[in-house]
Design goal:
The complex is a heterotetramer of chains A (609), B (456), C (110) and D (478).
Chain A (H helix, E strand, L loop, with lengths): L1 H5 L8 H22 L7 E11 L2 E9 L1 H24 L6 H20 L3 H19 L6 H32 L4 H8 L5 H17 L8 H4 L5 H10 L4 H8 L1 H5 L2 H22 L5 H21 L3 H28 L17 H15 L5 H16 L1 H26 L14 H16 L14 H7 L14 H28 L12 H7 L4 H48 L6 H21 L2
Chain C lengths: L2 H8 L3 H21 L3 H26 L3 H31 L13
Helix pairs in contact in C: 2-3, 3-4
Chain D lengths: L1 H19 L4 H22 L5 E9 L4 E7 L1 H19 L9 H20 L3 H10 L1 H11 L4 H29 L6 H5 L5 H18 L9 H7 L2 H26 L1 H27 L4 H22 L2 H32 L15 H14 L6 H14 L3 H26 L14 H19 L2 H20 L1
The chains are: A mainly alpha (609), B mainly alpha (456), C mainly alpha (110), D mainly alpha (478).
């Protein structure tokens, strides 16, 4: 298959080119597969070899090609190719570029494994694999301790999620005796079993880890330590959507566990709002995008929680387009400024780097959900579903969307408008970097067509396509009247427009920069400090853990366990020391002792007689 | 039995040789004589010959034990060739007394009459009182002799009292008659018999150094000349156990006495092992280890089992082998360390003489009971007997104490295999000693691998 | 043994002989344990042996069995040998520590 | 023939080394271990299932001790493990300076002999004899070539291990009496011991293995012993010797005292997992690389033992499979410890850091070893851990949670260690050599084994599958 070629490690200077060619090749292969695939057939499984086969457990190393995996493959390889291309320019000066490309390719392999696996365990291979690559790439510049810390944090948080996935798998295996998606989904339909709630909850824990939801989201902003293409590919477009993918994959199970869906809904909403609020006052261009990613992922989970799997996948797709675009654009900006990431030191770049500016504008508009751009369709679909469920959720999500609009435009305005506040001389990026930007910009504009709703004369093609692979989609129903939908869109669009206006007024006309955190009002400072969640986690988990680790060794092990072991021996020796004194060396005493012993034994004998 | 006569004559001859000629030929003559006795013992193996009007019977049991006694004495005489090389006075007497003591040992292996038991024990012991004080100018040696004598005589009194009471109850000194009597009479019904049995066993327990009749052993082991210590812990111990078992083998022991033996076993196991933990003088350590081994051997006595004599024989034979070798190694190390007997003197033995160190290690491992050495097979069989006879908890205790035992042997091994801090004198190993040590070292392994070689 | 003597011996019940010899034995034991003078200790050991002799003789009479009396001779013989050795050791001790107090001998211990 | 070769090749080589003390001891030892490996591979290829018995000789039949050797699938797996690991253990000697290398390597080969014996023995007492014998050469290796404070630690290790050993002996003797003097495993397994007896007999037998493995709270000898032992000694201890514990449980505890196992199952699993978590947490702040490996091994072993005591197909097969993976892992990690020690001069991680700049290749190799340690999928460890988790779930969900949590702890301390050794800013004046040919020759095969068996565990699982099923079905019949 296409995977074999991806494994190849690259060492030459042309590594970038080769890597790009490889991933582009797999993109072509994916496209060919896509063309040749008949969605009505439901999908097929390609077994590579027996993997685990012991005592009734048969888990083959098999791949599954169906609508869902193909969609994800296209996203992964397509965007992957663009980002590889982009990286050639971006990583041009780094001496370890070959390593970088090797790791990036390894990531693509793992990600493909994740989406193509025909059973949970194969998906888990990819699941952990992308985690490892993420670790490697975040810590790519290994000489900086903070980056290493961020890398470890990402891996460990993912691992915590993985515990959930492992438990879910174990549970499902126990219940169904297999881990094949197809078999489980077949067997599961109609089953009403509290076990499923547990299993889906565990899966969701896994998803919160990988897709950066509350409570395991703090690693994602830190993950921006990696090179920007990595942020774009892994931490925006592909890996973080793995959680959504897994949920859609097991949509049948989630449909049977409404309780889990509610939890997902609320956590998704909370994450969306929390992350959006944090995004408001961040000054690091990549951090803003990172929180925006977390927030958008929250929307996707809301969609999942609402049972609207196609909407989630749709948003995954469009988000992949515009968020990759935004990240690459940000990367281009950073590249242009020679590594500067603080938006307070940017401004007025519109004139210097036109292509970047223009594409970034498209991306911002898309994420804000300006009408007819891709984000508009996907986000509104989610909002519509939310409204159908409850106006409160709709209201909250709408608020989140407005926040998104605000901080994204803040970012746009502060970076590209006004006057330049930095020192480095900005220059436009090379063609290898701008081509991907332009492609992605186009995609961000037209991406909405993929799942054009009926309202706009479409047939929701993506939904119907995916329905063949994820049976859960069959359960979703959007039963709002066209009028309601139009009204909702109207409200949304109006408010978004208003917020953009406000942002314009605040950041273009007056260029309001955030001052030092210390000077902020309390509440604002709290938000600017990311609700102090990192600190909270550090105080709640990291420090006690370190304390525990130190003290288990110092106290439990050295003061209890080891002395306990030695104590028994020492006690024996001490007893020996005492008993030894009987041997006084005095002959008379010896005789007396013998006599006493004799009498004692005599007593024993007579007593037991 | 001509072997007995030969041995007695040998003793006298040795005494006379001491009067007339050099010390050089004493040991060779002694060894020759012993070998001749060996041949006589081994001849007519299956013949049961009686002696002294039935006071003594040489059956397979007696012959086997006698063989071991003689072989070990030969080894000790070989060692003696080097040990007494520089001693001027009384060497002949030493050899002669050892031979006399040996005669006593042979007698108590083969007694069938309590009179002979008593006589044998005294013949065994009285020369030892003298031998223990063999270094006439050494205070320690004198103290050892005195303590040994005093406690020995004291214990003899109890033994005698016991014998007299048994006689009073059964009207016979003959073992077979007593056994028959005990089989007929209800257990424990007869107070005289019970008391007699008790006191006799106490007297015998003194000889095998079982707690609480062990007090002599550490002091005497430490004070006596090394060769004599080796003799005591091998020949004397073996003979005493042979007698002990011969005495109780067929007597229907009252339950009360059996209980007492269990308690004695537990005490002996405990004290021997626990106190040995903190011994730093090697000979004292060996004394306590000897007490500990007494405990294991007593375990084999509990209950009746046809396999017991075999186990006893194997255990004592291999124990003697290891002990003889170790005492020779001690002597060598002690010479290099100018008379010190602390186990520190073994330090660096492996660097100084790897072969001797390895042989010593094997012997220590055998005493500790580590597999592939004879000591393991011996202990293993004892444990099997213990459990087979229903003494599960006693055996468990013995197993635990075996672990404690391993500790102090390991400490000695550790010394031998730790490089020494400062250079000490080279080990001067006479070829004859090297031979004996090698024999012992190889012996414990060979017997551990082919346990069938040593059986009654 | 002459029948008359046996009859004479049997006029006293066996228990009394046993008790008497126990008593003598105990005196001997107590002497060995509690006296400090080595010579007296040796004498007490002899007392222990002799109490046994007494007992054996009594038993011999009651069992009408001469073998015990032979044993008594053996015991006397052995006792003599023992005392010989004992006294010589005593002499050695006297020479070494210039005392016959048992408590002087306490260097070997532990 | 195979059994004889396996016992004789290392034994004769060892004797030759110890007695003749040739100058080129290490190559000879290496050749010997490779020869053993060849024999084992041959045995593997020609293995068709079932129990292969080789010899049945009288030793002390009357006392229940017969020389019966042979192997079933699990035994073969252990033989393979031993044979595969030992060339690496000997090979690790090439960066080490030893006093008297001939004797050192001879002792290692003796250990191998006895280990083969343990895995071949089909008589309980023969098993015991070999089981104890393995201690002797290791004792001397530790005592003579160990590090600081070796005198006390070695003795402590020896006594503690023997505590278990003698307890086992007692149990075996007890069983022997019950079976009327026949000590063969087949005879002992056929015994029907009353449930009440099994409840205490379980601990008598299991104590040996609990200490050998070791599981909490019998572990306190382990960290310091691992730390103090010479590198190769630690390898022997960690890679192979503790597997005797697993094997013993499989071979003795499970079939003979099944009711006892049933009674204590959850206790043992709980203890094992407490230990796994405990060690995993301690490992995090461990600043010495070698101690870290010790604690990580302790943590892994806890999971191994828990998996075994899940007492179902998945648990047992997973545990046995993982035993193999763990052996490879321990050797790899310890080799790295040695490699770092060679370069930096100590195993203290505070003295390391930023080494990736000067030795990127070694860092990459380290990382590849490490992915096995954290049980990333497609490495050997993952297969084993997955099976164990699946097995444990059938016992108890909460315990599984505890077990699975170790994968997080593992990630935490392993990555932290990696960071402290390799990552971070350059240290000044550290121009240390990168991975040499020797390092590659050593680590690449290990990593290859890990990955190949991670992708294709079939051959090993096949070996384990049938015997484990047979064991479990024979138990359910009783």
């Amino acid at each position: 298959m296409i995977l074999a070629s991806l494994r190849r490690k690259l060492s030459a200077n042309v590594a970038g080119g080769l890597a790009t060619a490889l991933i582009a090749g797999s993109f072509v292969a994916s496209v060919l597969l896509f063309m040749g695939f008949d969605p009505t057939s439901g999908g097929r499984t390609v077994k590579l070899l027996d993997w685990i086969d012991v005592g009734g457990m048969q888990i083959p190393l098999a791949l599954r090609i169906d609508a869902l995996s193909l969609t994800m493959m296209l996203i992964v390889t397509g965007i992957g190719s663009l980002i590889h291309l982009y990286s050639i320019g971006y990583m041009h000066d780094d001496e370890r570029a070959p390593t970088f490309f090797a790791q990036l390719n390894l990531f693509s392999f793992a990600m493909l494994m994740l989406v193509m696996g025909s059973n949970f365990l194969i998906t888990f291979i990819g699941w952990e694999g992308v985690g490892l690559c993420s670790y490697l790439l975040i810590g790519f510049w290994y000489k900086t301790p903070e980056y290493n810390y961020a890398a470890r944090k990402a891996f460990v948080m993912n691992r915590i999620g993985d515990v959930g996935v492992v438990l879910a798998m174990v549970l499902l295996f126990q219940r169904f005796g297999t881990l094949e998606y197809a078999s489980i989904m077949d067997m599961a339909s109609g089953v009403n079993d509290p076990l499923l709630i547990a299993a889906t909850l565990f899966l969701f824990i896994g998803a919160t880890g990988k897709s950066a939801q509350i409570p395991l989201f703090t690693w994602l902003p830190d993950a921006m330590a990696g090179p920007t293409p990595v942020s774009a590919l892994i931490h925006a477009a592909t890996m973080v959507t793995a959680g959504i993918f897994l949920t859609v994959r097991s949509s049948v199970l989630f449909e049977l566990a409404p309780f889990t869906k509610d939890i997902i809904l609320w956590i998704g909403t909370a994450t969306a709002l929390l992350a959006a609020s944090i995004g408001l006052f961040q000054n690091d261009i990549k951090k803003v995008l990172a929180y925006s990613t977390v927030s958008q992922l929250g929307y996707m989970f809301v969609a999942l929680g609402l049972g609207s799997y196609s909407a989630a996948m749709f948003h995954v797709t469009t988000h992949a387009f515009f968020k990759a675009l935004l990240f690459l654009g940000a990367g281009s900006v950073i590249h242009a400024l020679g590594g500067e990431q603080d938006i307070r030191k940017m401004g007025g770049l519109k004139g210097h780097i036109k292509i970047t500016y223009f594409t970034f504008l498209v991306g911002t508009a898309a994420i804000a959900g300006l009408p007819l751009l891709s984000g508009f369709f996907s986000k509104d679909l989610i909002l519509a579903f939310a409204f159908q469920r409850s106006p409160v959720i709709f209201g909250l999500l709408l608020f989140g969307a407005l926040l998104t609009t605000f901080y994204m435009f803040r970012l746009l305005f502060l970076v590209f408008y006004g006057t330049y506040r930095g020192k480095a001389h900005p220059h436009e990026s090379p063609l290898t970097m701008t081509i991907p930007l332009m492609v992605l910009a186009v995609l961000s504009v037209v991406g909405g067509l993929l799942n054009l709703p009926h309202l706009f004369g479409g047939h929701e093609p993506m939904k119907h396509y995916l329905e063949t692979a994820a049976a859960g989609i069959g359960y979703e129903h959007l039963e709002l009247s066209a009028l309601t939908e139009i009204i909702l869109m109207g409200i949304t669009t109006t408010l978004v427009g208003f917020v953009i206006y406000v942002a314009y007024g605040r950041f273009v006309k007056t260029t309001t920069l955030e001052g030092e955190e210390a000077t902020m009002p309390v509440f604002k400072r709290l938000i600017a400090q990311r609700w102090r969640i990192d600190e909270l986690y550090r105080a709640l988990f990291e420090k006690p853990y370190a304390w525990l680790s130190t003290n288990l060794l110092a106290v439990a092990e050295k003061k209890v366990m080891v002395p306990l072991m030695n104590g028994v021996g020492d006690a024996a020796i001490r007893v020996g020391d005492v008993v030894r004194r009987v041997q006084t060396g005095n002959a008379s005493f010896h005789l007396l002792a013998m006599l006493c012993g004799l009498i004692l034994f005599l007593v024993i004998t007579l007593m037991s007689n | 039995m001509s072997a007995l006569v030969l041995l007695s004559v040998l003793g006298v001859v040795l005494l006379y040789l001491g009067l007339f000629s050099g010390r050089g030929i004493l040991a060779p003559v002694g060894i020759l004589g012993l070998l001749a006795a060996l041949v006589l013992f081994a001849a007519d193996w299956h013949l049961e010959s009686t002696l002294f009007g039935g006071l003594v019977i040489f059956d397979t049991y007696a012959r086997s034990f006698s063989l071991v006694l003689v072989v070990v004495t030969v080894l000790l005489f070989l060692f003696g060739m080097d040990y007494y090389a520089k001693v001027r006075e009384n060497v002949a007497e030493h050899y002669a007394l050892m031979v006399f003591s040996l005669v006593g040992g042979v007698l108590i292996c083969s007694f069938t009459n309590l009179v002979m038991l008593f006589l044998g024990i005294e013949i065994l012991s009285i020369p030892l009182y003298i031998l223990a004080g063999g270094k006439r100018d050494s205070f320690r040696s004198g103290e050892a002799a005195f303590k040994y004598f005093l406690q020995g005589a004291f214990a003899s009194g109890f033994l005698l009292m016991g014998l007299a009471l048994i006689y009073g109850a059964t009207a016979s000194f003959d073992l077979a008659a007593i056994e028959a009597w005990s089989a007929v009479t209800a257990n424990g019904g007869n107070m005289l018999f019970l008391l007699g049995l008790f006191l006799t066993l106490a007297g015998l327990a003194f000889k095998v150094a079982a707690v609480p009749f062990h007090f002599w052993s550490p002091d005497v082991y430490e004070g006596a000349p090394t060769l004599i210590t080796a003799f005591m812990s091998t020949v004397v111990k073996t003979a005493a156990f042979a007698a002990f078992y011969r005495f109780i083998a067929n007597i229907q022991l009252p339950g009360a006495v059996e209980n007492m033996l269990v308690v004695m076993t537990l005490f002996t196991l405990f004290l021997g092992n626990i106190v040995a933990l903190r011994q730093t003088q090697f000979k004292r350590l060996m004394a306590y280890s000897s007490i500990a081994h007494t405990g294991f051997l007593l375990l084999a006595f509990l209950g009746t089992d046809g396999r017991t004599p075999d186990v006893l024989f194997y255990y004592l034979g291999t124990y003697a082998l290891a002990t003889v070798g170790l005492f020779i190694v001690l002597t060598l190390a002690k010479r290099a360390a100018l008379g010190d007997e602390n186990i520190r003197i073994f330090r660096g033995l492996f660097r100084r003489d790897p072969w001797i160190a390895i042989a010593a290690m094997l012997m220590l491992l055998s005493l500790a009971g580590i597999p592939l050495t004879a000591g393991f097979v011996a202990k293993y069989r004892v444990f099997v007997l213990g459990i087979a006879n229903g003494f599960i908890w006693t055996t468990l205790f013995a197993v635990l104490m075996a672990l404690v035992g391993i500790y102090y042997y390991i400490l000695v091994i550790r010394e031998a295999f730790t490089p020494q801090d400062q250079e000490s004198k080279e080990l001067a190993v006479a070829p004859i000693n090297w031979l004996v040590i090698s024999l012992c070292g190889a012996g414990v392994v060979a017997l551990g691998v082919w346990p069938g070689l040593l059986r009654i | 043994m002459e029948q008359g003597i046996i009859t004479a011996i049997r006029t006293v019940p066996l228990d009394h002989y046993v008790l008497l010899s126990f008593l003598l034995f105990s005196i001997g034991v107590a002497g060995v344990v509690f006296r400090r003078n080595t010579i007296i200790i040796l004498m007490c050991v002899e007392l222990m042996l002799n109490s046994v002799n007494l007992l054996l003789t009594a038993f011999s009479a009651y069992h009408s069995d001469p073998r015990a009396q032979v044993f008594v001779f053996f015991i006397m013989l052995v006792a003599a040998a023992e005392v010989t050795v004992g006294l010589s050791i005593l002499v050695m001790m006297k020479r070494n520590v210039d005392s016959v107090d048992v408590n002087q001998l306490n260097r070997l211990k532990g | 023939m195979i059994a004889a070769l396996l016992l004789l090749i290392p034994c004769i080589s060892a004797l030759a080394l110890v007695i003749l003390r040739p100058a080129q001891a290490r190559p000879i030892a290496l050749v010997s271990t490779l020869a053993s490996l060849a024999v084992v591979v041959f045995a593997w290829i020609s293995y068709t299932g079932g129990m292969v018995l080789h010899y049945d000789l009288d030793w002390m039949n009357a006392w229940g001790l017969r020389f019966v050797v042979g192997y079933d699938g699990v035994g073969l797996l252990m033989l393979i493990l031993t044979a595969v690991v030992f060339p690496f253990i000997i090979g690790a000697g090439y960066g080490q300076q030893h006093d008297r290398p001939a004797i050192f390597n001879g002792l290692l080969l003796f250990t191998q002999t006895f280990l083969f014996g343990v895995f071949l023995a089909q008589n309980a007492l023969l098993f015991y004899i070999f089981y104890e014998l393995t201690l002797i050469p290791v004792f001397f290796v530790l005592l003579y070539w160990g590090g600081e404070n070796r005198r006390n630690i070695t003795v402590r290790f020896f006594i503690y291990t023997l505590l278990g050993g003698l307890s086992l002996l007692f149990g075996l003797v007890y069983l022997l009496i019950q079976s009327g003097g026949n000590g063969d495993f087949t005879a002992l397994q056929a015994l029907n011991i009353p449930g009440g007896t099994q409840v205490w007999l379980f601990w008598i037998l299991f104590l040996a293995f609990a200490i050998k493995l070791p599981i909490f709270p019998f572990h306190s000898w382990q960290p310091e012993t691992y730390y103090m032992a010479p590198l190769q000694g630690t390898m022997v201890l960690g890679a192979v010797m503790l597997k005797m514990g697993l094997f013993g449980v499989y071979k003795i505890v499970f079939p003979i005292v099944p009711l006892g196992v049933e009674h204590w199952q959850s206790t043992v699993i709980l203890l094992a997992l407490i230990g796994a978590v405990y060690a995993g947490i301690i490992a995090f702040r461990q600043s010495d690389f070698k101690r870290l490996v010790a604690f990580s091994s302790l943590s892994h072993v806890g999971v191994l033992c828990a998996g075994l005591f899940a007492w179902n197909t998945y648990g047992i097969s997973g545990s046995l499979y993982q035993a193999f993976a763990h052996a490879i892992l321990v050797v790899g990690m310890l080799y790295l410890v040695g490699a770092m020690q060679e370069r930096v001069g100590s195993t203290d991680m505070n003295a390391m850091g930023g080494l990736k700049s000067s030795m990127p290749r070694l860092a990459a190799l380290f990382l590849l070893v490490l992915v096995n340690a954290v049980a990333l999928p497609l490495t050997q460890s993952f297969v084993g851990e997955w099976l164990m988790f699946a097995g444990l779930w059938q016992v108890d969900g909460w315990l599984t949670l505890l077990a699975v949590s170790t994968i997080v702890l593992g990630a935490v301390y392993m990555l932290y260690a990696y960071q402290r050794v390799m990552l971070g800013p350059d240290r000044a004046n550290q121009q240390l050599p990168d991975a040499t040919t020797r390092d590659h020759l050593y680590l690449v095969p290990l990593i290859a084994v890990t990955l190949i068996l991670g992708v294709h565990p079939g051959p090993i699982l096949e070996l384990v599958d049938a015997p484990v099923l047979q064991l479990l079905s024979s138990l359910s019949v009783n």
